[in-house]
Specification:
single chain, alpha+beta, Bit1, five-stranded mixed β-sheet, 6 helices, 5 strands, globular, disordered N terminus, PTH2, peptidyl-tRNA hydrolase
Length: 158
C-alpha cells in the first residue's frame, strides 16, 4: 500500500539465500510508539465495529465457511480503503479492531439483514460464492456499534 493508504510499502528483502530475517512483532504491526499510543487510546463505549455474518445452514466444511467470512471481510477492507471510519478501524486508532461474527439461519435471513443495511444507507458487502451463485456471507463497513447493532438484534453469534 502507499502512504495514501494504511502505511508505507514494506522494505524489500535483498537476498533470499541464507536464513530468513527475524521479524519482531512491532515490525508486523507498526512501531513501538504506535503500540504505546494505541495502548493508551481511550476505550470508547461506542467503538467502531465490523459485523461479519455467515450462513449456518450450509453443509460446507468449516474451512470453506471461514473462507467466506474472509472473502467478505477482505472485500470490505478494499472497498472501504478511503473511508475515514474504516481507516481508523483498520489502523487501530481506538486500540483494537472489534469484529462481531454472527450466524445467519439461512440465505433468507442473510439477505434480509443485507437489504435492511442497504435501505438504511449503511455500506456492506454481501458475498456471493461463484460459480455456485450462493450468498454465503455479509460484512459491514466499520461503523459505530450503536448504529449497526439494531440490524443484528435477535441473531446469535456464529
Amino acid at each position: 500500500m502507499t502512504a495514501e493508504g494504511f502505511g508505507a510499502e514494506p522494505a524489500e528483502v535483498a537476498s533470499t539465500s541464507g536464513p530468513l530475517p527475524t521479524m519482531e512483532p512491532t515490525a508486523c504491526h507498526g512501531t513501538a510508539a504506535d503500540k504505546e499510543s494505541s495502548a493508551s487510546a481511550p476505550v470508547r463505549k461506542d467503538p467502531l465495529v465490523m459485523y461479519v455474518m455467515i450462513r449456518k445452514d450450509l453443509d460446507w466444511p468449516m474451512g470453506a465457511l471461514m473462507n467466506q467470512a474472509c472473502h467478505a471481510s477482505s472485500a470490505v477492507t478494499w472497498e472501504a480503503r478511503e473511508d475515514t471510519q474504516a481507516v481508523d478501524y483498520f489502523s487501530e486508532v481506538e486500540g483494537q479492531m472489534t469484529t462481531m461474527t454472527m450466524g445467519a439461519a439461512d440465505e433468507v435471513e442473510l439477505r434480509k439483514v443485507a437489504e435492511k443495511l442497504f435501505a438504511a444507507g449503511f455500506p456492506a458487502r454481501l458475498w456471493v460464492e461463484q460459480p455456485e451463485g450462493v450468498a454465503s456471507a455479509l460484512a459491514t463497513w466499520p461503523r459505530r456499534r450503536s448504529e449497526l447493532q439494531k440490524f443484528f438484534k435477535g441473531i446469535k453469534r456464529f
